[in-house]
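We treat protein structure as text, and this decision shapes the records that our systems exchange. The tokens are whole numbers drawn from a learned vocabulary of local backbone shapes. One such record is reproduced below, unchanged from the form in which we store it:
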Amino acid sequence: MAATETEQSALFKQARDAASVAYVPYSHFPVGAALIAKNGLVFQGCNIENASFGLTNCAERTAIFKAVSSGVRTFETIGIYGDTDEPISPCGACRQVLAEFCPEDMPVFLFSRDGKVKKTTVGELLPYHFKDLV
């Protein structure tokens, strides 16, 4: 997907809006994600923390799990927003989940608070991922 400036702006806003409902009482670091399915549906996700920090779920995984649990498994792109000076990048667990459900060449847009953007792909984020092992 070669996102137009308008599509990229919409993706930024959807990811930023998702961050606005993050549950982050411990880190105070909201992250939002907007996952666009091939059928055009948008699945937003935010990070959801837990006092047992290992049980925290990231925004990217929240969006993907919402989509998969709704029966959607083919995706076009994802935007990830952090209230940061520079674009943020998914953690290792999120990279592996992206690799499980998304094509390697799927665009990933990483956004900062002021709209700085870094465009990459799922394959560039995790080139040596586990895939199709079963």
